[in-house]
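// run 5 | inverse folding | seed 20
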């Protein structure tokens, strides 16, 4: 699965960078995240509950940051296991671009592989769930990082993102 997109975040590039590296902010924003802890400056461990179609599982995994270029970009890689539900592994390249002093464009390109029961659900269901989760993450992230202006901007961004998906 591959997914590329950009999101406008109503905050400075430095503030967005700090939030992307703050486990407490990420834990609040990642759908289903039960725990997220830094084990080193470039590694985190996480526990996340996902529901994809009829399959619900708790995934435990490790996330590693590499190719760090603060406050411009990094690569995030991870892998997790959900027991009989399967496994997921992949990564994302994340880049930040200052549109103005208080607006940042976050670009991302995701590549991921899944296996087990999850892989049997079909690509369309997996892709639509991944896009839905990404939308939920960015709505929450913009609200946390940008305050009430962030929530309004993220909601508008989600509506346009959903329009692109559905063609409406």
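// decoded
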């Amino acid at each position: 699965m591959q997914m590329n997109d950009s999101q406008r975040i109503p905050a400075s590039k430095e503030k967005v960078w700090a939030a992307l590296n703050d486990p407490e902010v990420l834990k609040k924003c990642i759908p289903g995240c039960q725990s997220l802890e830094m084990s080193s400056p470039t590694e985190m461990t996480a526990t996340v509950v996902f529901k994809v179609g009829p399959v619900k599982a708790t995934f435990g995994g490790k996330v590693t940051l590499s190719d760090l270029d603060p406050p411009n970009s990094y690569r995030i890689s991870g892998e997790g296991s959900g027991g009989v539900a399967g496994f997921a592994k992949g990564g994302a390249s994340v880049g930040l671009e200052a549109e103005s002093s208080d607006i940042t464009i976050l670009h991302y390109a995701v590549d991921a592989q899944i296996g087990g029961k999850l892989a049997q659900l079909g690509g369309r269901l997996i892709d639509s769930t991944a896009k839905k989760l990404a939308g939920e993450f960015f709505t929450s992230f913009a609200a946390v990082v940008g305050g009430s202006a962030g929530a309004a901007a993220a909601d508008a961004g989600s509506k346009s993102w959903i329009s692109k998906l559905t063609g409406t």
